[in-house]
Q: What sequence folds into this?
């Protein structure tokens, strides 16, 4: 037993620990992850469609599918950072939050919401900025190259903040 436990009967201490665990689970469940889950699921579906259609479809169809993937990325990205903002407020208790993605991502790094090995979130932010202004072939190509990593990082993030397992939601 540590010092904190020594003055409290063991049964009471175990009960308090269990109540704290239940409270933490309840607080985590206050954030609605359904929009993030759905937008990520739709991005994955369209990205798989894009990857499987490349050799067998016309150039025009390939471009349309690629544009759709980029649009799904934009929607998922926007949903993700807004979900993170709610998570920071409701689960971590940070009351004053900025209203744009990059500062939200910085707060996530500072509060260890993001895996420290992934420095990709600022890259995704830049791609999102680029796609909102221009669908040139160059920018579309750079966006499509990052989407697979974005999907992987987003699944890890979803599981981390929601406490749910992804399993092809």
A:
């Amino acid at each position: 037993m540590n010092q904190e436990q020594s003055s409290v009967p063991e049964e009471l201490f175990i009960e308090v620990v269990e109540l704290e665990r239940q409270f933490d689970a309840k607080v985590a469940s206050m954030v609605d992850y359904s929009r993030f889950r759905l937008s990520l699921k739709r991005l994955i579906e369209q990205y798989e469609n894009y990857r499987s259609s490349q050799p067998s479809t016309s150039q025009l169809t390939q471009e349309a599918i690629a544009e759709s993937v980029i649009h799904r990325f934009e929607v998922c990205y926007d949903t993700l950072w807004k979900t993170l903002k709610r998570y920071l407020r409701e689960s971590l208790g940070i009351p004053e939050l900025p209203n744009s993605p990059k500062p939200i991502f910085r707060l996530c790094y500072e509060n260890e919401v993001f895996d420290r090995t992934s420095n990709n979130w600022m890259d995704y932010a830049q791609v999102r900025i680029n796609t909102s202004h221009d669908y040139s072939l160059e920018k579309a190509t750079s966006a499509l190259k990052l989407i697979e990593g974005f999907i992987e990082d987003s699944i890890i993030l979803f599981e981390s903040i929601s406490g749910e397992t992804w399993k092809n939601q």
About this structure: Residues 68 and 91 are 33 Å apart (CA to CA). The chain has a mean pLDDT of 85. Residues 59-90 form the longest helix (32 residues).
